[in-house]
Structures are given as C-alpha cells and as structure tokens.
Design brief:
87 residues, 4 helices, alpha+beta, binds zinc ion
C-alpha cells in the first residue's frame, strides 16, 4: 500500500520534472528506491534536505528527485531551486 502510494506520488513529480527538462530518476532506480521504503522513513523523520537550499523536504514540498553522482537527491518545489539545479 505504502509502496503504491509513494510510487504514484513520485510519478507526479517526474511529470513535473520532464516539463522542466531536469534529469529525473529512471524507473528502475525509482523501483529500487521505493522498495527500500527508506525514503518514506527519511522524509517522515525530516532528515531529507533540499539539495539546493537545504530546506527540509516533506511530502508536500518535493519539487524534484534526481540522481546526482549516484545518489538520490531531493529538490524542494521552489522554482529557484529547480532552475538552479537544472543549470
Ligand atoms: Zn530548495
């Protein structure tokens, strides 16, 4: 249940990302990412920070998810962060 919820949620962000032409996590990466369910725990505990501005990421403010040097990174929804990341 949580897996499907999270997957649907994150799929929406990928659509957002495609429009902004940010590199997004490939489906296979997303699957392994979500299978661990670690992400949800990390977000729930407030330990995930925006890659650009270091603001705490919640399920409400995720703007983008991307792979940076092999790590999954989260970017908040602020347009300035997404455009900075996209440079
Ligand atoms: Zn940010």
């Amino acid at each position: 249940m949580i897996y499907n919820y999270l997957k649907n949620l994150i799929s929406r962000f990928f659509i957002k990302l495609r429009k902004k032409r940010v590199n997004f996590v490939y489906d296979s990466d997303l699957d392994s990412l979500l299978k661990s369910l670690e992400v949800k725990d990390r977000i729930d505990s407030g330990s995930v920070k925006c890659f650009v501005c270091k603001e705490t990421i919640t399920f409400k403010n995720i703007g983008a998810i991307a792979k940076v040097k092999g790590n999954i990174e989260f970017i908040c929804e602020k347009p300035v962060c997404i455009s900075n990341f996209n440079k």
